[in-house]
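Suppose you are handed only these lines of text.
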Amino acid sequence: MALLPFALVHVVEHVALTRWYGKPSSLQRLLRPRSDSSRADLTTVLLVRGVLVRFSFVTAPFTLPGLALLALAGLNKILGWPGLLHGLMPQSLVVATVVWLVAVDFTHYAAHVAMHRVPALWHVHKLHHAATDMNISTGSRLSFGEQAWYGLTGLIVMRIILGLPSPDVVVAVMFIRTCLDLLQHSDLPWDYGWLGYLVVSPRYHRLHHSADRRDGDANYADLFPCWDYVFDTVADRYRSRRATADDCGLGLFDQDEGAAINRAWLTAPLHASFLDRASLAAAGRWVAGARAMASRRFSRAPAPLAPTPRTADHRIHRETGPLP
Ligand SMILES: [Zn+2]
Ligand SMILES: [Zn+2]
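From them, the structure of the protein bound to zinc ion can be written out as follows.
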């Protein structure tokens, strides 16, 4: 059942791209990757989806979000806390699915905007934006930090505010979200016509990945574009409907940094998945600084001579030249 949306969207995308638009499908791009970006996507499919997601079921309880989840689950059980609005949740499967889709999507929107605005969170989101080719698997190109962030924000909504949904609702929400997420990262030039005002299309999300600074950071919505319209974060080009699927380059504004992240993801996926190179370098500098401080503090060697203090006259000489 979990593979059904993947199989369905792959077939639709393969037929549409190869028969109607004469372009390679995601499957063809992944089987014959021609760029570091596609190779990084292949790594994502094999490593993240194929191995680590399964492995993470075992390791997740030992991570911080995992521990928080366990603590909250225990607290829920002890206190019998069903969720703040649990009593108000509708019983009908269709209505409950719509309510959950809206709630999860708004949470996703807020968490996504935060990742673009808070530098520490942007570091874990960069991997997603380093893609220079779009294909179905690009949606899965999430660092572990990003997965943890979405997990944590979703957890707050589910455990504290709404309460846990029924299994039927979980299946329906996952199915719809997965299908639309896969499609919006495909190379299909679709904008769904008038339906594009209700649901995020490939053309809409493509502008979120634009490497053109004029598009800015915009089109954050994952499922429902209404959040972008309400909070005024729609890309100007999309608002005026001048954007076409092929006229924006993809990737980070800083292409060199994007290339470095793709290479890092290929050579050291575990490191790159937690933090990008810049963060690792910053962490390295911090550790080196802390070590230097500690060694100065505990070293028995005499402290180096203090530099000669500069007097006010000294400064005047530097700025105006020696006095006659
Ligand atoms: Zn983003
Ligand atoms: Zn995306």
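What can we learn from it? Residues 25-284 form one domain. Residues 301-324 have pLDDT under 50 and may be disordered.
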